[in-house]
Amino acid sequence: MRYSGLAVLAQGLTGNRGWRPAWRDPAPKDAYDIVIIGGGGHGLATAFYLAKEHGLRNIAVLEKGYLGGGNIGRNTTIVRANYGLPGNSEFYSHSLKLWEGLEAELNYNVMHSQRGIINLFHSDGQRDAYARRGNAMINQGDDAILLDRAGVRKLLPYLDYEQTRFPIYGGLYHPRGGTARHDAVAWGFARGADMRGVDLIQNCEVTGIDIEGGRVTGVQTSRGAIRAKKVGIVVAGRSSQVAAMAGMRLPIESHILQAFVTEGLKPVIDHVVTYGMGHFYISQSDKGGLVFGGDLDFYASYAARGNLPMAEHVMEAGLTLMPMIGKARILRSWGGIMDMSPDGSPIIDRTHIEGLYLNCGWCYGGFKAVPASGHTFAHLIATDRPHEAAARYRLDRFATGRGLMDEEAKGSQHNLH
């Protein structure tokens, strides 16, 4: 059913008895044209755009748990297009444009809030780097404003401007950046895909990938074998494990990234703020909680939880930047399993196995990429040609060394990205 203000009013007056489930709970069929492994944001978006943009209907999304139970529900909800390198710049610009029309396209409130992002810098070198990045953003057609110290202080008066170790020199302001509700993004894409005939199959773990004569023929699951002409792997931190079922070894390491949320507070932080010297980022949710995170745990793991030393490190960075949050009580924390690539940029490409496609390596950029990831991956699966916005996200760049996109200039060590 279509959501609208009138529908909400009508349901409220009739005891909310007329709402229908947002999506079906079908049993898996014996065969599909396309199987998407992974029912997170990227997988659901891929299925949605396959149906909407390419008119394909015989599609299944297989999720071993529940829809949206992975990284799409374990992040700090930031949406931005402030990348500087060719390849990344046009991709995230494409994603931001999709975000801006997403609620109308899905007929679903994903709570997209363009409150603006301010990346702080703390040295002359950082200022020069952000000036270059801002110019790249403007050249791409996005927005960027370089603020001096006074400009930052006008927007963010609550920061500690007296610290001498990492003084605040200014910031790069990206007004169109902001946040969205992570769960709602998964639900909106799931509902939109289901409306177009896609089967969303939960509690269906893929245990094997069937290959005959160099071509994929289907998958083995905890609910039986399913034949498929094409299979897309979109499983974030589990990418290496699932790809291994097809005999592939990916250049991916899985690391844990923690996030935290405090008790609800009165509105105090109007923007998303990032701390250039402490790798700390923070915003305030619509419910009033301060949502923040920091560095990876720096060791490979598949545990969806973080460790206490890194939690302490994140708190220290936050208090260095804005001591005012020191009395806020932490309600909960969680960990996302990050699929870290050697250059910090993602992979959207065909594999050497005909009919098998790969979408992974999102590092810190997974949530903000959801619409464009689904849109471009759907294009690749449907047409066997890369979308122009994702043309540089080739898998073979790690074998040849050509086309690497080291956005943060961290080298090839996965966990530094």
Q: How would you describe this structure to a colleague?
A:
By secondary structure, this protein is an alpha/beta fold. The chain has two domains: 24-75 and 183-251 and 343-416, FAD/NAD(P)-binding domain (3-Layer(bba) Sandwich); 112-178 and 253-340, D-Amino Acid Oxidase, Chain A, domain 2 (2-Layer Sandwich), CATH 3.30.9. It contains eleven helices and 18 strands. Helix 3 (88-100) packs across helix 10. It is globular, with a radius of gyration of 21 Å.
Give the CA-based shape: globular
Mean pLDDT: 95
Helix content: 25-40%
Largest sheet entry: 8 strands, mixed
Strand content bin: 25-35%
Number of domains: 2
Main structural class: alpha/beta
Instruction: Tell me which CATH architecture of the largest domain applies here.
Output: 3-Layer(bba) Sandwich
The total count of strands amounts to: 18
Helix and strand pattern? HEHEEHHEHEHEEHEEEEHEEEEHEEEHH
Distance between the termini: 42 Å
CATH topology call of the largest domain: FAD/NAD(P)-binding domain
Which runs of at least 5 residues are low in confidence (pLDDT < 50)?
none
CATH superfamily of the largest domain: FAD/NAD(P)-binding domain
Radius of gyration: 21 Å
